[in-house]
Amino acid sequence: MSNPLAPEWLDYPADLNAVDEKVWPRHVRRRATGELEVAGVAVTEIAAQFGTPLYVIDEDDFRARATAAKNALGDAARKIGTEAKVYYASKAFLSTEIVSWINELGLNIDVASGGELAAALAGGIDASRIGLHGNNKSLREIGRAVTAGVGAIVIDSELEIERIASAAGAQDKVQPVRLRVNTGVHANTHDFLATAREDQKFGIALADAPALVAKIRSHSHLKFLGLHQHVGSQIFNAEGFVESTKRLVALHAELSKESEIPELNLGGGFGVNYTPADKAPGISYFADAITAVVAEECSKHAVKVPKLAFEPGRFIAGPAGMTLYNVGTVKDVKVTDGASPAVRKYVSVDGGMSDNMRTALYEAEYHTVLASRSSEAQAALARVVGKHCESGDIVVRNDYLPADVHPNDLLAVATTGAYCYSMSNNYNFLTKPAVVAVKSGEARLIIRAETEADLFTRDLKYQATANQNEKS
């Protein structure tokens, strides 16, 4: 029986033990014994070996999704007589292991800070395949990027033109750059994820672009690659991309009258399914819609179709990852402030907003299942919450779990491969979880879990006391 506290989009489950392939990593199955497995390894074994909370990546699924993005965008570009550069947007999830996968698969990589640049370089990818973003790049970050020889720096404000030109000039190099432009298109997504509207921190106004491009072109140490847009993230509809691209191609055509512009970067933001109720289209839907409008508008403005660039991140990493949690406490809370009293089951786990900030930050919805066993119990509306000292510390806001969920059960939360580890933190001095990659029946650690000792590595009084104790 459905619960009146449940949101309209949340269907009462026909089978609580089902594993919906649209939200789980490709190689997640439920065994006959009732527990989930990932690529042939039982989640109970993974949790016993590496602890919980634990980020788990289906490596073959991650690789397959990266390849699918590269192929779909590349094929769509070839249909209109050009080619596509596909950058993995590393802010979704980054480690040197991930960089090595991206490198092997032949994608480029997009970074947004000096730390991400350092990780990309440490992962072994050639600097020419790196693009550097950021609305407030430090002089140090710019200098490091120029020294490394990154393939593109995305200019986000007028000030950066002189800063990048100065750094390149000091090293007697020519630095390729793009200019990020706000087209004014409002993507159909959460306000915090819409990044092309006028009233926000990224990019420059469409009307200001010609003057800034002229300024870029005036510097002998800068090479203008082209314009860049990013309309937002977690988008399900191509309409915003299409309208924004029309405006960007019109500007591209105007600027091309002076000299040919080789590239056009159309960003990323392709949505994924977080819950079984979501209906995210495949990446080919976006690829075909965007490239079709590029071809149409280039023909309309009588300009050559440029090379295209795209920056998928969530699409690759998100569905390939999941998080395992251990249940600590369970309590039924009677809610009396609605039209009729109802009960919501609060299931507390050993993580929370320190390993998944998105629920608190964006009111994001996630999907969870009982992972260590199956259950024939009735479905109960549940809220999975963390152990932080915050009422907003919610991991899964709305879902159904078996009514017999109890302490020491394992829960799995789907589609946590993007922006969960990246946004992880030490609030309440919780340690960050490990990250495990699973492939062909083997689980291996790619990022170890933090220890409490790690929390004190920068605490000078603690270190001084520890050093004193060692000497005495």
Query: Helix segment count?
Result: 13
Tell me the CATH topology of the largest domain: TIM Barrel
Q: How many domains, in number, for the residues?
A: 2
Strand content: 15-25%
What is the helical fraction, as a range of percent?
Answer: 25-40%
Radius of gyration: 24 Å
CATH architecture call of the largest domain: Alpha-Beta Barrel
Q: How does the major sheet shape up?
A: 9 strands, mixed
CATH class value of the largest domain: Alpha Beta
Structural description of this entry:
There is one protein chain. With about 475 residues, this protein is of the alpha/beta class. It folds into 2 domains: about 30-60 and about 320-455, Lyase, Ornithine Decarboxylase, Chain A, domain 1 (Beta Barrel), CATH 2.40.37; about 80-310, TIM Barrel (Alpha-Beta Barrel), CATH 3.20.20.10. It is built from 13 helices and 21 strands. It has helices at about 45-50, 60-80, 95-105, 115-120, 140-150, 160-170, 210-215, 240-255, 285-300, 315, 360, 450-455, 460-470; strands at about 30, 35-40, 40, 55-60, 85-90, 110, 130, 150-155, 175-180, 205, 220-230, 265, 305-310, 320-335, 340-350, 370, 380-385, 395-400, 410-415, 435-440, 440-445. The strands form 3 sheets. Strands 4, 14, 15, 16, 17, 18, 19, 20 and 21 form a 9-stranded mixed beta sheet that branches. The protein has an 8-stranded parallel β-barrel with strand order 5-6-7-8-9-11-12-13, surrounded by 7 helices. Helix 2 (about 60-80) packs parallel to helix 9 and helix 5 (about 140-150) crosses helix 6.
